[in-house]
Each structure stands twice: as structure tokens, then as C-alpha cells.
Amino acid sequence: MARQKLLYVVGARPNFVKMAPVVAELQRRLPDAEHVVVHTEQHYDPELSEIFIDQLGLPEPEFRLDVGSGSHAQQTARAMERLEEVVIADPPDLAFVPGDVNTTLAAALVLVKLGVPYAHVESGLRSFDRSMPEEINRIVADEFAEYLFAHSEDAVANLRKEGIEPERIHLVGNTMIDTLCRLEPLFRPLHVAAGVRLPPLGIVLVTLHRPALVDGALLPTVLEQLQTVAERTPVVFPVHPRTRARIAAPERYPDVRLLPPLGYLEFLSLEADAAAVLTDSGGVQEETTFLGVPCFTLRAVTERPVTTRLGTNVVLGLDPARIPEIADAIGADRREHRIPPLWDGRASERIADVVVERL
Ligand code: UD1
Ligand code: UDP
């Protein structure tokens, strides 16, 4: 009998965090199968790509597709053309596609058209805002997936409302949290803030990269507000390259520590020790909920409502004028919060339970 083959498609920073534990668990459960990682290289700078492969222990990608940056159509089309060749040359029995980036969309379309079943990891999230590219990518990835792996009841409810058959939907928990739990013994002792002479438990950590915030006129106002916060509390901002390209005059914000994007372990060390986090990242909203760190989301909506209902997340709106509220929250009594069900480090095991039985 031919060896079973599983294909894992990744391309951007959050994909590595979501996929690494899935690959590791399936390698453990199916040692005789072939496990092939394809990296579209939608993200290609080492600090958004290689450092994650190394720190997370993702197997070296067998295929690198050199897709790079471009418009949505260019990026998606390049990923589709190049992934299609890989899949046609040796079709897998099952593929895994994570999250909601353009790589996710490209992979879903290629796989469904070639008749290759795939699993969507982090299925069912909805912002109900179709001006967000991620919303389009998620809807398409969910529509055609054979297995829809959801991380919360909210996500399951969204899928059911869209009429997706219950047999395809599996509530398994959050694979990003699997990665966090596995690497916690490595990042906890780092105390990166203390190492660069910042108060060990007192910083405001910032990540912002959504087009709605950084591509338009709001970014200078955000930075001015952060400068005001930074005059009282240290503000550390590892800057995504999309955002970096749009910060015209960094010298206007002398107290905001603008850093390059950080590796996972260094970033998680800062996140775990932070007094508060300001973000528009999806993954960071989830990690802070798990870590119990106050999180302020500078977006109109979140597709992760469980982080506001149970967790530590407060959605500020797309409103930089509310940034000073972060400073007020520091030192205040922390709100009651709970870790969402099944965010326990074992989501990948549940994914493997489902697919191994059916393969
Ligand atoms: C992408 C995802 C977004 C996700 C984010 C995670 C889409 C539509 N967006 O946004 O959902 O939250 O990744 O980080 O897929 N660039 C570099 N080096 C790189 C990669 C990008 O300099 O390695 C710069 C380029 O100027 C590029 C810009 O960043 O044009 C944006 O990159 P892109 O992949 O299009 O989208 P992100 O903003 O990274
Ligand atoms: N992250 C990181 N270094 C950074 C910023 C983020 O390691 O400088 C991690 C973060 O902890 C999370 C993931 O990258 O695990 C989230 O990726 P990103 O914010 O780029 O994407 P999103 O989650 O918004 O799609």
C-alpha cells in the first residue's frame, strides 16, 4: 500500500504558530506517513518566517514557493499557481490549511478544485465585516473544507448559521495555545524586558498591522497617543513591516520604543510580563486571554468574541483617542477572567483523534 501523505500549507507569521503543534502531533500519531510542509513565503523576512520555523520546531519546508508581497490578486494568484504544481505532482491524502491569510485562500481554492480534502484549522471565526480581507479568506476556506476545526462555541455557532453540516464541524480548542503551553517553559524565564533595563512587569506592549489602522490617516494619531502614554509607562512596540513602512517620522515619538518584529519566545516573554497590551492582532488577543494579561484591541470589531466575554480583551473601537484608557487600567484591579474551554494545550491531539480515525 502507498504511504499516506499529509500536506501542511503555511505562509505568514501566525500560520507557523497555529500549525506547528498540528504537524508535531500527526507526526507522532502517524510515524509511517509522509508529512510535507509547504511554505508559500507570503512572509519572507527572517524575523517573520525563519525564526518561527526554528523556535517552534516546524519541520523544514520541503517546498518554498517564493510568493512574496503584492496586491491581493497577485499574491493569491502566485500562491495558487505554484501550489497547484506541487499538489498535482504528488497529491496528498489530506491537507491542512490554517487561519485567514491570503495563503489560506489560495490553498483552499487549489485543493478543492483538485479534489484534495483539506482541514481548516481555526475555522468559523467571523468579524461580519467583509471589508477585511481575512473575512473573505475565512469564508472561502470554511465553505470547502472537509474538516472544520473550531476553537470556540462562537465559531461553531457561526458555521451552523451558515448551514454547514454538523458532521464537518469539530470543536477542538486552540492550537495557538498548544504552542504557547509547549514553549512556556522556554519563554517564562527569559524576562526580556528586564534584560533591556525596562521594568520587569511594567511595560505596555504594542502590535499594530491591520490596513484599516496603519494604511490610512490614523497611524500618526496612534503614535502621538502612545508617546503620551510612554511619558508615564514604558511602551514597547515591535513593528510589523507593513507598519514600519508607514511611520514617517519616528523621531516625533522619542519615548516609544520601536523595535523590529520579535521572535516568538522574545515576544511571548514581553507579552506574559506586560502590564497591558495594545493590539489589532488576532493571535495576541487570544494569547493575552490565556495569560491573563489585560488586552486592548484597537479595532472596530473582533472575530474572537470569546476573548471579551470570558477573557481579558476590551475592544476600544478604531479610536486612538481611547488609548489613554490603557494607562488608567495599569495597577487597577484586574477584571475577573476565565480561560475559554478547550484552550488547554491539547487541541492538536483532538485534531489528530478526528483525522487519524478517518484516514
Ligand atoms: C498578513 C495577513 C494578515 C495577518 C498578517 C500577520 C493577508 C491578506 N493578510 O498581513 O491577515 O494578520 O499577515 O502578520 O493575508 N512585508 C515585508 N516582509 C515580509 C512580509 C511583508 O516587508 O516578510 C511587507 C511588504 O511591504 C508587504 C506588506 O508587508 O507589502 C504586507 O504584507 P502582506 O503579506 O501582504 O500582508 P500583512 O500586512 O503582512
Ligand atoms: N508575534 C511575535 N512577534 C511579534 C509580534 C507577534 O512572535 O513581534 C506573534 C504573536 O505572539 C502571535 C503571532 O505572532 O503568536 C500573531 O501574529 P500576527 O499578529 O502577525 O497575526 P494575526 O494573529 O493578527 O493574524
Gyration radius, rounded: 20 Å
Compressed to H and E, one letter per element, the order equals: EHEHEHEHEHEHEHHEHHEHEHEHEHEHH
Please report the distance between the alpha carbons of the first and last residues.
Answer: 14 Å
Ligands bound here? uridine-diphosphate-N-acetylglucosamine, uridine-5'-diphosphate
Q: Mean of residue pLDDT?
A: 96
Helix content: 40-55%
Q: What is the topology, as strand order, of the major beta sheet?
A: 3-2-1-4-5-6-7
Principal-axis shape: globular
Secondary-structure class: alpha/beta
The number of helices is 16
| Major β-sheet profile | 7 strands, parallel
β-strand percent reads 15-25%
Overall number of strands:
13
List segments where confidence is low: pLDDT < 50 over at least 5 consecutive residues. Answer: none
